[in-house]
Amino acid sequence: MDLSTLTIAEARDALRKGELTSVDLTDAYLTAAEASDALNAYTTKTPEQARDMAAAADARIKAGDAPAMCGIPIGVKDLYAVEGVATQAASNILAGFKPQYESTVTGNLWSSGAVMLGKLNMDEFAMGSSNITSAYGPAISPWRRAGDETPITPGGSSGGSAAAVAADLCLGATASDTGGSIRQPAAFTGTVGIKPTYGRCSRWGMVAFASSLDQAGPVTKTVRDAAIMLGAMAGYDPKDSTSANLPVPDFEAALTGDIRGKTIGIPREYRVEGMSETLDTLWREGAEMLRDAGATIVDISLPHTKYALPTYYIIAPAEASSNLSRYDGVKYGHRATLAQGDGITDMYEKTRAEGFGEEVQRRVMLGAYVLSAGFYDAYYVRAQKVRTLIKRDFELAFGDGVDAILAPATPSAAWGLGEMQTDDPVQMYLEDVFTVPLNLAGLPGVSVPAGLNRQGLPLGLQLIGRPWEEGDLLNIAGALETAVGFTAKPERWW
Amino acid sequence: MSIDIDTARRVAHLARIRVEEERLPHLAEQLSSVLDFMEQLNEVDVDGIEPMTSVTPMALPRRKDGVTDGGIQDKVLANAPDAREGFFAVPKVVE
Protein backbone atom coordinates (compact mmCIF):
# COMPACT_ATOMS: atom_id res chain seq x y z
CA MET A 1 0.00 0.00 0.00
CA ASP A 2 1.40 3.40 -0.97
CA LEU A 3 0.72 5.28 2.25
CA SER A 4 1.61 8.69 0.83
CA THR A 5 -1.28 8.80 -1.63
CA LEU A 6 -3.96 7.78 0.86
CA THR A 7 -6.86 10.08 1.65
CA ILE A 8 -8.26 10.38 5.17
CA ALA A 9 -11.29 8.31 4.13
CA GLU A 10 -9.12 5.54 2.64
CA ALA A 11 -6.79 5.48 5.63
CA ARG A 12 -9.72 5.39 8.05
CA ASP A 13 -11.29 2.45 6.24
CA ALA A 14 -7.98 0.55 6.07
CA LEU A 15 -7.34 1.22 9.78
CA ARG A 16 -10.80 -0.01 10.74
CA LYS A 17 -10.37 -3.15 8.67
CA GLY A 18 -7.03 -3.85 10.32
CA GLU A 19 -5.13 -3.61 7.02
CA LEU A 20 -2.99 -0.84 8.42
CA THR A 21 -1.87 0.44 11.81
CA SER A 22 -1.70 4.06 12.82
CA VAL A 23 1.85 3.47 14.05
CA ASP A 24 2.98 2.44 10.55
CA LEU A 25 0.98 5.21 8.88
CA THR A 26 2.33 7.81 11.28
CA ASP A 27 5.92 6.61 10.80
CA ALA A 28 5.57 6.99 7.04
CA TYR A 29 4.38 10.59 7.44
CA LEU A 30 7.04 11.42 10.03
CA THR A 31 9.65 10.22 7.53
CA ALA A 32 8.11 12.34 4.78
CA ALA A 33 7.97 15.37 7.10
CA GLU A 34 11.59 14.81 8.13
CA ALA A 35 12.68 14.99 4.49
CA SER A 36 10.68 18.10 3.68
CA ASP A 37 12.72 20.93 5.16
CA ALA A 38 13.17 22.56 1.74
CA LEU A 39 9.43 23.32 1.83
CA ASN A 40 9.63 24.92 5.30
CA ALA A 41 6.07 23.72 5.91
CA TYR A 42 6.66 22.38 9.43
CA THR A 43 7.80 24.86 12.06
CA THR A 44 7.91 22.29 14.87
CA LYS A 45 7.84 18.52 14.54
CA THR A 46 6.48 16.39 17.36
CA PRO A 47 7.54 12.81 16.48
CA GLU A 48 7.44 11.47 20.04
CA GLN A 49 3.95 12.73 20.68
CA ALA A 50 2.92 11.42 17.25
CA ARG A 51 4.12 7.90 18.02
CA ASP A 52 2.42 7.87 21.43
CA MET A 53 -0.82 9.16 19.93
CA ALA A 54 -0.63 6.61 17.11
CA ALA A 55 -0.16 3.72 19.55
CA ALA A 56 -3.12 4.98 21.60
CA ALA A 57 -5.21 5.25 18.42
CA ASP A 58 -4.34 1.67 17.43
CA ALA A 59 -5.49 0.51 20.86
CA ARG A 60 -8.78 2.37 20.47
CA ILE A 61 -9.37 0.91 17.02
CA LYS A 62 -8.64 -2.57 18.36
CA ALA A 63 -11.16 -1.98 21.13
CA GLY A 64 -13.77 -1.07 18.54
CA ASP A 65 -13.80 2.60 19.54
CA ALA A 66 -12.71 4.34 16.36
CA PRO A 67 -14.14 7.81 15.72
CA ALA A 68 -13.74 9.48 12.35
CA MET A 69 -10.17 10.74 12.69
CA CYS A 70 -8.84 7.88 14.81
CA GLY A 71 -5.21 7.18 13.90
CA ILE A 72 -5.04 9.84 11.16
CA PRO A 73 -1.78 11.86 11.16
CA ILE A 74 -2.38 15.57 10.71
CA GLY A 75 -0.52 18.87 10.90
CA VAL A 76 -1.64 21.84 12.98
CA LYS A 77 -1.36 25.47 11.90
CA ASP A 78 0.92 27.36 14.29
CA LEU A 79 -2.11 29.51 15.21
CA TYR A 80 -3.65 26.81 17.43
CA ALA A 81 -2.61 26.53 21.04
CA VAL A 82 -1.40 23.00 21.71
CA GLU A 83 -0.52 22.34 25.31
CA GLY A 84 3.24 22.21 25.87
CA VAL A 85 4.09 22.64 22.18
CA ALA A 86 5.66 25.83 20.78
CA THR A 87 2.85 28.05 19.47
CA GLN A 88 3.99 31.32 17.96
CA ALA A 89 1.51 32.23 15.20
CA ALA A 90 4.76 32.63 13.22
CA SER A 91 5.59 35.79 15.21
CA ASN A 92 8.76 36.71 17.07
CA ILE A 93 6.66 38.33 19.75
CA LEU A 94 5.51 34.87 20.85
CA ALA A 95 9.06 33.45 20.81
CA GLY A 96 9.32 30.69 23.36
CA PHE A 97 5.59 30.59 24.14
CA LYS A 98 4.33 27.17 25.19
CA PRO A 99 0.60 27.18 25.90
CA GLN A 100 -0.56 25.79 29.22
CA TYR A 101 -3.89 24.84 27.66
CA GLU A 102 -5.35 23.27 24.51
CA SER A 103 -7.43 24.95 21.81
CA THR A 104 -10.94 23.52 21.53
CA VAL A 105 -10.50 22.60 17.85
CA THR A 106 -7.29 20.61 18.42
CA GLY A 107 -8.79 19.15 21.59
CA ASN A 108 -11.76 17.93 19.53
CA LEU A 109 -9.38 16.38 17.00
CA TRP A 110 -7.39 14.58 19.68
CA SER A 111 -10.62 13.28 21.24
CA SER A 112 -11.48 11.98 17.81
CA GLY A 113 -8.17 10.09 17.76
CA ALA A 114 -6.18 12.25 15.37
CA VAL A 115 -2.39 12.09 15.57
CA MET A 116 -0.30 15.27 15.65
CA LEU A 117 2.80 15.37 13.43
CA GLY A 118 3.76 18.97 14.22
CA LYS A 119 3.00 22.66 13.76
CA LEU A 120 2.69 24.27 10.34
CA ASN A 121 3.97 27.54 8.92
CA MET A 122 1.78 30.58 8.25
CA ASP A 123 1.91 34.33 7.78
CA GLU A 124 2.60 36.18 11.04
CA PHE A 125 -0.68 36.36 12.99
CA ALA A 126 -2.38 35.08 9.78
CA MET A 127 -1.84 38.48 8.14
CA GLY A 128 -0.74 37.82 4.59
CA SER A 129 -1.39 36.00 1.34
CA SER A 130 1.99 34.47 0.58
CA ASN A 131 3.66 33.37 3.82
CA ILE A 132 6.39 35.98 3.44
CA THR A 133 5.53 37.58 6.77
CA SER A 134 6.35 34.41 8.74
CA ALA A 135 9.03 34.74 11.43
CA TYR A 136 10.25 31.31 10.32
CA GLY A 137 10.68 32.38 6.70
CA PRO A 138 8.07 31.44 4.08
CA ALA A 139 6.72 27.99 3.38
CA ILE A 140 7.39 26.98 -0.22
CA SER A 141 4.87 25.30 -2.50
CA PRO A 142 5.67 21.81 -3.75
CA TRP A 143 4.40 23.06 -7.12
CA ARG A 144 6.69 24.69 -9.68
CA ARG A 145 6.04 26.20 -13.08
CA ALA A 146 6.89 23.85 -15.94
CA GLY A 147 10.63 24.00 -16.67
CA ASP A 148 11.25 26.69 -14.05
CA GLU A 149 12.76 26.32 -10.59
CA THR A 150 11.54 29.64 -9.18
CA PRO A 151 10.17 28.96 -5.68
CA ILE A 152 6.40 29.46 -5.70
CA THR A 153 4.31 30.61 -2.77
CA PRO A 154 1.77 28.13 -1.37
CA GLY A 155 -0.37 31.17 -0.52
CA GLY A 156 -1.35 32.44 2.86
CA SER A 157 -1.94 32.66 5.54
CA SER A 158 -2.36 28.86 5.89
CA GLY A 159 0.52 28.28 3.44
CA GLY A 160 2.25 25.63 5.56
CA SER A 161 -1.02 23.70 5.88
CA ALA A 162 -1.63 23.75 2.12
CA ALA A 163 1.99 22.94 1.21
CA ALA A 164 2.06 20.03 3.67
CA VAL A 165 -1.17 18.49 2.35
CA ALA A 166 -0.20 19.00 -1.32
CA ALA A 167 3.23 17.44 -0.72
CA ASP A 168 1.77 14.45 1.18
CA LEU A 169 3.45 15.45 4.44
CA CYS A 170 0.21 14.84 6.38
CA LEU A 171 -3.26 13.54 5.54
CA GLY A 172 -4.96 16.80 6.45
CA ALA A 173 -4.18 20.00 8.28
CA THR A 174 -5.97 22.53 10.42
CA ALA A 175 -6.07 26.03 8.97
CA SER A 176 -7.91 29.27 9.68
CA ASP A 177 -9.61 31.85 7.50
CA THR A 178 -10.09 35.54 8.32
CA GLY A 179 -10.16 36.87 4.75
CA GLY A 180 -9.37 33.82 2.61
CA SER A 181 -6.52 32.16 4.48
CA ILE A 182 -7.91 28.65 3.96
CA ARG A 183 -9.39 28.97 0.48
CA GLN A 184 -6.56 30.86 -1.27
CA PRO A 185 -3.74 28.47 -0.22
CA ALA A 186 -5.96 25.51 -1.10
CA ALA A 187 -6.55 27.00 -4.57
CA PHE A 188 -2.80 27.64 -5.01
CA THR A 189 -1.84 24.05 -4.16
CA GLY A 190 -4.53 21.89 -5.77
CA THR A 191 -6.08 20.99 -2.41
CA VAL A 192 -9.53 21.39 -0.86
CA GLY A 193 -10.13 24.00 1.84
CA ILE A 194 -13.37 24.84 3.60
CA LYS A 195 -14.17 27.83 5.80
CA PRO A 196 -17.37 26.91 7.62
CA THR A 197 -20.10 29.30 8.77
CA TYR A 198 -18.90 31.78 11.39
CA GLY A 199 -19.57 30.13 14.75
CA ARG A 200 -19.38 26.52 13.52
CA CYS A 201 -15.95 25.99 15.11
CA SER A 202 -14.84 27.36 18.44
CA ARG A 203 -12.20 30.09 18.38
CA TRP A 204 -11.01 29.22 21.90
CA GLY A 205 -7.24 28.76 21.82
CA MET A 206 -6.79 30.09 18.30
CA VAL A 207 -4.44 33.08 18.32
CA ALA A 208 -6.87 35.91 17.56
CA PHE A 209 -6.52 38.16 14.51
CA ALA A 210 -9.99 39.65 13.81
CA SER A 211 -12.51 37.99 16.07
CA SER A 212 -15.66 38.74 14.05
CA LEU A 213 -14.07 37.19 10.94
CA ASP A 214 -11.77 34.38 12.17
CA GLN A 215 -12.98 30.85 11.57
CA ALA A 216 -11.26 27.47 11.75
CA GLY A 217 -11.39 24.88 8.98
CA PRO A 218 -9.37 22.07 7.39
CA VAL A 219 -7.19 21.76 4.29
CA THR A 220 -7.43 18.25 2.82
CA LYS A 221 -6.86 16.33 -0.40
CA THR A 222 -10.53 15.68 -1.19
CA VAL A 223 -14.00 17.01 -0.47
CA ARG A 224 -14.87 13.83 1.44
CA ASP A 225 -11.84 14.35 3.67
CA ALA A 226 -12.89 17.96 4.26
CA ALA A 227 -16.31 16.70 5.39
CA ILE A 228 -14.74 14.17 7.78
CA MET A 229 -12.18 16.53 9.27
CA LEU A 230 -14.53 19.52 9.59
CA GLY A 231 -16.99 17.29 11.42
CA ALA A 232 -14.29 16.40 13.94
CA MET A 233 -13.22 20.03 14.45
CA ALA A 234 -16.66 21.63 14.74
CA GLY A 235 -19.04 21.89 17.67
CA TYR A 236 -20.51 24.15 20.31
CA ASP A 237 -18.13 25.45 22.94
CA PRO A 238 -19.30 27.55 25.89
CA LYS A 239 -15.78 29.01 26.08
CA ASP A 240 -16.39 30.92 22.81
CA SER A 241 -19.43 33.17 23.18
CA THR A 242 -19.85 33.33 19.38
CA SER A 243 -19.77 29.55 18.96
CA ALA A 244 -23.15 28.36 17.71
CA ASN A 245 -25.18 26.08 19.94
CA LEU A 246 -26.29 23.89 17.04
CA PRO A 247 -25.79 20.18 16.46
CA VAL A 248 -23.05 19.30 13.96
CA PRO A 249 -24.62 17.29 11.15
CA ASP A 250 -22.87 14.32 9.56
CA PHE A 251 -21.22 16.22 6.70
CA GLU A 252 -19.92 13.06 5.06
CA ALA A 253 -23.42 11.60 4.91
CA ALA A 254 -24.49 14.66 2.91
CA LEU A 255 -22.16 13.64 0.06
CA THR A 256 -24.72 11.89 -2.09
CA GLY A 257 -23.37 13.27 -5.35
CA ASP A 258 -26.90 14.17 -6.33
CA ILE A 259 -27.25 17.88 -7.04
CA ARG A 260 -30.30 17.69 -9.33
CA GLY A 261 -32.61 20.61 -8.78
CA LYS A 262 -29.98 22.76 -7.08
CA THR A 263 -29.67 26.37 -8.21
CA ILE A 264 -26.15 27.75 -8.61
CA GLY A 265 -25.64 31.49 -8.89
CA ILE A 266 -22.88 33.06 -10.97
CA PRO A 267 -22.14 36.54 -9.57
CA ARG A 268 -21.44 39.00 -12.37
CA GLU A 269 -19.41 41.30 -10.11
CA TYR A 270 -16.77 38.59 -9.69
CA ARG A 271 -15.77 38.91 -13.36
CA VAL A 272 -13.00 41.40 -12.59
CA GLU A 273 -10.63 43.15 -14.93
CA GLY A 274 -7.30 41.43 -15.43
CA MET A 275 -8.61 37.96 -14.54
CA SER A 276 -6.66 35.28 -16.38
CA GLU A 277 -8.24 33.75 -19.46
CA THR A 278 -7.61 30.24 -18.17
CA LEU A 279 -9.43 31.06 -14.96
CA ASP A 280 -12.35 32.52 -16.87
CA THR A 281 -12.55 29.34 -18.97
CA LEU A 282 -12.34 27.07 -15.91
CA TRP A 283 -15.09 29.07 -14.22
CA ARG A 284 -17.38 28.72 -17.26
CA GLU A 285 -16.57 25.01 -17.56
CA GLY A 286 -17.24 24.53 -13.85
CA ALA A 287 -20.69 26.03 -14.27
CA GLU A 288 -21.34 23.77 -17.28
CA MET A 289 -20.28 20.71 -15.27
CA LEU A 290 -22.71 21.57 -12.49
CA ARG A 291 -25.45 22.08 -15.09
CA ASP A 292 -24.65 18.69 -16.65
CA ALA A 293 -24.98 17.18 -13.17
CA GLY A 294 -28.52 18.51 -12.96
CA ALA A 295 -28.16 21.95 -11.39
CA THR A 296 -29.73 25.12 -12.74
CA ILE A 297 -27.28 27.94 -13.44
CA VAL A 298 -28.49 31.50 -12.94
CA ASP A 299 -26.77 34.86 -13.20
CA ILE A 300 -26.91 36.83 -9.98
CA SER A 301 -25.77 40.22 -8.79
CA LEU A 302 -23.93 40.99 -5.55
CA PRO A 303 -23.73 44.74 -6.07
CA HIS A 304 -21.60 45.66 -3.06
CA THR A 305 -18.79 43.24 -3.92
CA LYS A 306 -16.33 45.99 -4.86
CA TYR A 307 -16.65 47.50 -1.40
CA ALA A 308 -15.75 44.28 0.40
CA LEU A 309 -11.99 44.89 0.30
CA PRO A 310 -11.95 48.42 1.74
CA THR A 311 -14.53 47.31 4.33
CA TYR A 312 -12.40 44.34 5.28
CA TYR A 313 -9.22 46.40 5.52
CA ILE A 314 -10.90 48.68 8.05
CA ILE A 315 -12.63 46.07 10.18
CA ALA A 316 -9.84 43.47 10.28
CA PRO A 317 -7.05 45.89 11.34
CA ALA A 318 -9.39 47.54 13.86
CA GLU A 319 -10.06 44.20 15.53
CA ALA A 320 -6.40 43.22 15.21
CA SER A 321 -5.22 46.38 16.95
CA SER A 322 -7.46 45.52 19.85
CA ASN A 323 -6.63 41.79 19.94
CA LEU A 324 -2.88 42.31 19.60
CA SER A 325 -2.75 44.82 22.44
CA ARG A 326 -2.24 41.80 24.71
CA TYR A 327 1.34 41.45 23.41
CA ASP A 328 2.99 43.84 25.84
CA GLY A 329 6.08 41.98 27.01
CA VAL A 330 4.54 41.21 30.40
CA LYS A 331 2.51 38.01 30.32
CA TYR A 332 4.23 35.87 27.68
CA GLY A 333 6.59 35.96 24.76
CA HIS A 334 9.27 38.47 23.93
CA ARG A 335 10.31 41.44 26.06
CA ALA A 336 12.83 43.95 24.73
CA THR A 337 16.04 44.58 26.64
CA LEU A 338 15.54 47.92 28.33
CA ALA A 339 17.97 50.77 28.80
CA GLN A 340 18.70 52.38 32.16
CA GLY A 341 15.76 54.57 33.12
CA ASP A 342 13.28 53.08 30.62
CA GLY A 343 9.72 53.12 31.92
CA ILE A 344 6.80 50.86 31.20
CA THR A 345 5.77 52.70 28.02
CA ASP A 346 9.30 52.28 26.64
CA MET A 347 8.98 48.59 27.42
CA TYR A 348 5.71 48.31 25.49
CA GLU A 349 6.94 50.31 22.52
CA LYS A 350 10.33 48.63 22.19
CA THR A 351 8.92 45.13 22.74
CA ARG A 352 6.24 45.59 20.08
CA ALA A 353 8.65 47.21 17.61
CA GLU A 354 11.03 44.26 17.96
CA GLY A 355 8.42 41.52 18.18
CA PHE A 356 5.97 42.43 15.41
CA GLY A 357 6.92 42.22 11.75
CA GLU A 358 6.33 45.08 9.34
CA GLU A 359 2.91 44.03 8.03
CA VAL A 360 1.58 43.33 11.51
CA GLN A 361 2.83 46.72 12.72
CA ARG A 362 1.17 48.40 9.76
CA ARG A 363 -2.18 46.76 10.45
CA VAL A 364 -2.08 47.42 14.18
CA MET A 365 -1.37 51.10 13.51
CA LEU A 366 -4.04 51.29 10.83
CA GLY A 367 -6.50 49.77 13.27
CA ALA A 368 -5.51 52.21 15.99
CA TYR A 369 -6.06 55.06 13.51
CA VAL A 370 -9.52 54.02 12.27
CA LEU A 371 -10.66 53.50 15.86
CA SER A 372 -9.21 56.77 17.15
CA ALA A 373 -11.31 59.72 18.28
CA GLY A 374 -12.57 61.73 15.32
CA PHE A 375 -12.16 58.92 12.78
CA TYR A 376 -14.21 56.15 14.38
CA ASP A 377 -17.49 57.15 12.69
CA ALA A 378 -15.95 58.02 9.34
CA TYR A 379 -14.12 54.71 8.97
CA TYR A 380 -15.16 52.03 11.41
CA VAL A 381 -18.89 52.67 11.77
CA ARG A 382 -19.24 53.30 8.03
CA ALA A 383 -17.43 50.03 7.30
CA GLN A 384 -19.78 48.15 9.63
CA LYS A 385 -22.75 49.64 7.75
CA VAL A 386 -21.33 48.60 4.39
CA ARG A 387 -20.74 45.18 5.91
CA THR A 388 -24.48 44.96 6.58
CA LEU A 389 -25.10 45.71 2.89
CA ILE A 390 -22.57 43.10 1.73
CA LYS A 391 -24.29 40.47 3.83
CA ARG A 392 -27.67 41.61 2.53
CA ASP A 393 -26.52 41.02 -1.08
CA PHE A 394 -26.00 37.36 -0.25
CA GLU A 395 -29.25 37.10 1.70
CA LEU A 396 -31.19 38.44 -1.29
CA ALA A 397 -29.52 35.93 -3.62
CA PHE A 398 -30.28 33.04 -1.27
CA GLY A 399 -33.80 34.42 -0.79
CA ASP A 400 -34.30 34.17 -4.54
CA GLY A 401 -33.67 30.43 -4.33
CA VAL A 402 -29.94 30.20 -4.97
CA ASP A 403 -28.43 27.20 -3.14
CA ALA A 404 -24.78 28.01 -3.74
CA ILE A 405 -22.66 30.53 -5.59
CA LEU A 406 -19.81 29.57 -7.92
CA ALA A 407 -16.85 31.93 -8.31
CA PRO A 408 -13.09 31.80 -8.67
CA ALA A 409 -11.15 31.44 -5.42
CA THR A 410 -8.35 33.81 -6.48
CA PRO A 411 -7.78 36.21 -9.40
CA SER A 412 -4.65 34.33 -10.51
CA ALA A 413 -2.48 31.29 -9.86
CA ALA A 414 0.30 31.41 -7.25
CA TRP A 415 3.20 33.76 -7.88
CA GLY A 416 6.91 33.27 -7.38
CA LEU A 417 8.45 34.43 -4.13
CA GLY A 418 9.62 38.00 -4.57
CA GLU A 419 7.45 38.61 -7.64
CA MET A 420 4.67 40.36 -5.76
CA GLN A 421 5.10 44.08 -5.22
CA THR A 422 4.99 44.06 -1.44
CA ASP A 423 5.95 47.65 -0.81
CA ASP A 424 2.46 48.69 -1.87
CA PRO A 425 0.15 47.00 0.65
CA VAL A 426 -2.94 47.73 -1.46
CA GLN A 427 -1.60 45.62 -4.38
CA MET A 428 -1.22 42.72 -1.98
CA TYR A 429 -4.69 43.23 -0.51
CA LEU A 430 -6.32 43.05 -3.99
CA GLU A 431 -5.47 39.32 -4.09
CA ASP A 432 -8.21 38.74 -1.49
CA VAL A 433 -10.99 40.18 -3.66
CA PHE A 434 -12.98 36.91 -4.07
CA THR A 435 -12.53 35.58 -0.56
CA VAL A 436 -13.17 38.44 1.90
CA PRO A 437 -16.90 38.97 1.14
CA LEU A 438 -17.72 35.59 2.75
CA ASN A 439 -15.90 36.43 5.96
CA LEU A 440 -17.75 39.74 6.15
CA ALA A 441 -21.04 37.87 5.67
CA GLY A 442 -20.09 34.92 7.91
CA LEU A 443 -20.84 32.42 5.12
CA PRO A 444 -19.27 29.03 4.43
CA GLY A 445 -17.04 28.69 1.37
CA VAL A 446 -15.01 25.88 -0.11
CA SER A 447 -12.20 25.93 -2.64
CA VAL A 448 -11.99 22.97 -5.02
CA PRO A 449 -9.18 22.33 -7.55
CA ALA A 450 -10.37 23.29 -11.05
CA GLY A 451 -7.33 22.62 -13.22
CA LEU A 452 -3.85 23.85 -14.09
CA ASN A 453 -2.87 27.05 -15.84
CA ARG A 454 -0.60 27.06 -18.91
CA GLN A 455 2.47 27.05 -16.68
CA GLY A 456 1.26 24.00 -14.80
CA LEU A 457 0.13 25.69 -11.56
CA PRO A 458 -3.21 24.84 -9.91
CA LEU A 459 -6.27 27.07 -9.98
CA GLY A 460 -9.30 26.72 -7.73
CA LEU A 461 -12.99 27.44 -7.90
CA GLN A 462 -14.91 28.56 -4.87
CA LEU A 463 -18.42 27.56 -3.87
CA ILE A 464 -20.24 29.77 -1.39
CA GLY A 465 -23.09 28.29 0.63
CA ARG A 466 -26.00 29.26 2.83
CA PRO A 467 -25.28 29.69 6.55
CA TRP A 468 -25.11 26.35 8.42
CA GLU A 469 -25.54 24.39 5.17
CA GLU A 470 -21.95 23.11 4.94
CA GLY A 471 -23.27 19.60 4.17
CA ASP A 472 -25.18 20.78 1.12
CA LEU A 473 -22.24 22.98 0.09
CA LEU A 474 -19.79 20.07 0.35
CA ASN A 475 -22.16 17.88 -1.65
CA ILE A 476 -22.15 20.41 -4.50
CA ALA A 477 -18.36 20.73 -4.14
CA GLY A 478 -18.11 16.96 -4.35
CA ALA A 479 -20.11 16.91 -7.58
CA LEU A 480 -17.77 19.55 -9.02
CA GLU A 481 -14.71 17.61 -7.84
CA THR A 482 -15.98 14.44 -9.52
CA ALA A 483 -16.73 16.25 -12.77
CA VAL A 484 -13.38 18.07 -12.84
CA GLY A 485 -11.43 14.90 -12.06
CA PHE A 486 -8.33 16.81 -10.94
CA THR A 487 -5.51 14.30 -10.43
CA ALA A 488 -2.35 16.38 -10.98
CA LYS A 489 0.31 16.17 -8.29
CA PRO A 490 3.50 18.21 -7.95
CA GLU A 491 6.62 16.40 -9.08
CA ARG A 492 8.87 15.77 -6.12
CA TRP A 493 11.98 18.01 -6.07
CA TRP A 494 12.49 18.65 -2.34
CA MET B 1 -1.81 62.40 1.40
CA SER B 2 -4.24 61.77 4.25
CA ILE B 3 -1.62 60.99 6.90
CA ASP B 4 1.23 63.41 7.57
CA ILE B 5 4.35 62.68 9.57
CA ASP B 6 2.92 64.06 12.81
CA THR B 7 -0.14 61.86 12.49
CA ALA B 8 2.05 58.83 11.77
CA ARG B 9 4.04 59.57 14.93
CA ARG B 10 0.81 59.87 16.92
CA VAL B 11 -0.62 56.64 15.51
CA ALA B 12 2.59 54.75 16.29
CA HIS B 13 2.38 55.95 19.87
CA LEU B 14 -1.32 55.06 20.10
CA ALA B 15 -0.38 51.55 18.98
CA ARG B 16 2.55 51.49 21.44
CA ILE B 17 5.02 50.67 18.67
CA ARG B 18 8.36 52.50 18.63
CA VAL B 19 9.00 53.92 15.14
CA GLU B 20 12.26 55.78 14.57
CA GLU B 21 11.97 59.32 13.16
CA GLU B 22 13.60 58.42 9.85
CA ARG B 23 11.00 55.71 9.20
CA LEU B 24 8.00 57.98 9.76
CA PRO B 25 7.76 59.41 6.20
CA HIS B 26 7.60 55.92 4.68
CA LEU B 27 5.04 54.83 7.25
CA ALA B 28 2.92 57.91 6.55
CA GLU B 29 3.03 57.15 2.84
CA GLN B 30 1.97 53.52 3.29
CA LEU B 31 -0.85 54.29 5.72
CA SER B 32 -2.06 57.02 3.37
CA SER B 33 -2.12 54.66 0.43
CA VAL B 34 -4.33 52.22 2.35
CA LEU B 35 -6.61 54.99 3.61
CA ASP B 36 -6.95 56.44 0.10
CA PHE B 37 -8.08 53.01 -1.04
CA MET B 38 -10.75 53.04 1.68
CA GLU B 39 -12.14 56.36 0.49
CA GLN B 40 -14.31 54.42 -1.99
CA LEU B 41 -16.63 53.59 0.89
CA ASN B 42 -17.80 57.20 0.79
CA GLU B 43 -19.61 56.38 -2.48
CA VAL B 44 -21.94 53.96 -0.70
CA ASP B 45 -25.32 55.21 0.45
CA VAL B 46 -25.54 54.00 4.04
CA ASP B 47 -28.48 56.15 5.10
CA GLY B 48 -30.70 54.22 7.47
CA ILE B 49 -28.41 51.17 7.46
CA GLU B 50 -27.58 49.64 10.82
CA PRO B 51 -23.90 48.94 11.46
CA MET B 52 -23.30 45.22 11.85
CA THR B 53 -22.71 44.07 15.39
CA SER B 54 -23.08 40.31 14.98
CA VAL B 55 -22.63 38.42 11.73
CA THR B 56 -24.88 35.59 12.84
CA PRO B 57 -28.27 36.59 14.21
CA MET B 58 -27.89 35.32 17.73
CA ALA B 59 -28.05 36.82 21.17
CA LEU B 60 -24.90 36.73 23.22
CA PRO B 61 -25.36 33.89 25.71
CA ARG B 62 -25.21 34.70 29.40
CA ARG B 63 -23.80 32.58 32.13
CA LYS B 64 -24.00 32.70 35.87
CA ASP B 65 -21.65 35.30 37.29
CA GLY B 66 -19.52 32.87 39.24
CA VAL B 67 -15.92 31.74 39.54
CA THR B 68 -15.27 29.06 36.90
CA ASP B 69 -11.51 28.80 36.99
CA GLY B 70 -8.56 29.60 39.20
CA GLY B 71 -5.82 28.25 41.42
CA ILE B 72 -3.42 27.98 38.49
CA GLN B 73 -0.89 30.67 39.35
CA ASP B 74 2.02 28.54 38.12
CA LYS B 75 0.41 28.08 34.73
CA VAL B 76 -0.48 31.76 34.43
CA LEU B 77 3.10 32.78 35.13
CA ALA B 78 4.80 29.94 33.21
CA ASN B 79 5.43 31.98 30.06
CA ALA B 80 6.18 35.35 31.64
CA PRO B 81 9.47 37.00 30.59
CA ASP B 82 9.96 38.09 34.20
CA ALA B 83 7.97 36.52 37.03
CA ARG B 84 8.99 36.95 40.66
CA GLU B 85 7.41 35.74 43.88
CA GLY B 86 4.16 34.89 42.15
CA PHE B 87 3.84 38.19 40.26
CA PHE B 88 4.53 39.56 36.80
CA ALA B 89 7.51 41.92 37.16
CA VAL B 90 7.62 45.16 35.13
CA PRO B 91 9.69 48.37 35.21
CA LYS B 92 8.74 50.88 37.87
CA VAL B 93 5.33 52.40 37.03
CA VAL B 94 4.97 55.02 39.80
CA GLU B 95 7.70 57.03 41.42
UniProtKB/TrEMBL annotation, chain A:
Assembly and partners?
Heterotrimer of A, B and C subunits.
Enzyme Commission designation: 6.3.5.7
GO terms assigned for molecular function: ATP binding; glutaminyl-tRNA synthase (glutamine-hydrolyzing) activity; transferase activity
Q: Which residues form the active site?
A: K77, S157, S181
Residues annotated as transmembrane: none
Q: Which family does it belong to?
A: Belongs to the amidase family. GatA subfamily.
What is one cellular component GO term in this UniProt entry?
A: glutamyl-tRNA(Gln) amidotransferase complex
> Which EC class is this protein assigned?
ligase
UniProt-listed GO biological process terms: translation
Lineage of the source organism? Bacteria, Pseudomonadati, Pseudomonadota, Alphaproteobacteria, Rhodobacterales
Q: What does this protein do?
A: Allows the formation of correctly charged Gln-tRNA(Gln) through the transamidation of misacylated Glu-tRNA(Gln) in organisms which lack glutaminyl-tRNA synthetase. The reaction takes place in the presence of glutamine and ATP through an activated gamma-phospho-Glu-tRNA(Gln).
Keyword annotations? ATP-binding, Ligase, Nucleotide-binding, Protein biosynthesis, Transferase
Q: Which PROSITE patterns match?
A: AMIDASES
Q: This chain belongs to which protein, by name?
A: Glutamyl-tRNA(Gln) amidotransferase subunit A
**Leader sequence segment:** none
Which reaction equations make up its catalytic activity? L-glutamyl-tRNA(Gln) + L-glutamine + ATP + H2O = L-glutaminyl-tRNA(Gln) + L-glutamate + ADP + phosphate + H(+)
Q: Which domain of life is it from?
A: Bacteria
Q: Which Pfam families match?
A: Amidase
Is DNA-binding among this UniProt entry's keywords? no
**Domain Amidase stretches:** 24-474
From TrEMBL, chain B:
UniProt cross-references to InterPro entries, sorted A to Z: Asp/Glu-ADT_sf_sub_c, GatC
Q: Keywords on this record?
A: ATP-binding, Ligase, Nucleotide-binding, Protein biosynthesis, Transferase
The keyword Protein biosynthesis appears for this protein: yes
Which GO molecular function entries does the Swiss-Prot or TrEMBL record give?
A: ATP binding; glutaminyl-tRNA synthase (glutamine-hydrolyzing) activity; transferase activity
Pfam families the record matches: GatC
Catalysed reactions listed for this entry: L-glutamyl-tRNA(Gln) + L-glutamine + ATP + H2O = L-glutaminyl-tRNA(Gln) + L-glutamate + ADP + phosphate + H(+); L-aspartyl-tRNA(Asn) + L-glutamine + ATP + H2O = L-asparaginyl-tRNA(Asn) + L-glutamate + ADP + phosphate + 2 H(+)
Describe its assembly.
Answer: Heterotrimer of A, B and C subunits.
The protein's role, per its UniProt record: Allows the formation of correctly charged Asn-tRNA(Asn) or Gln-tRNA(Gln) through the transamidation of misacylated Asp-tRNA(Asn) or Glu-tRNA(Gln) in organisms which lack either or both of asparaginyl-tRNA or glutaminyl-tRNA synthetases. The reaction takes place in the presence of glutamine and ATP through an activated phospho-Asp-tRNA(Asn) or phospho-Glu-tRNA(Gln).
This protein is called Aspartyl/glutamyl-tRNA(Asn/Gln) amidotransferase subunit C
Q: Which organism is it from?
A: Rubricella aquisinus
Gene behind the chain:
gatC
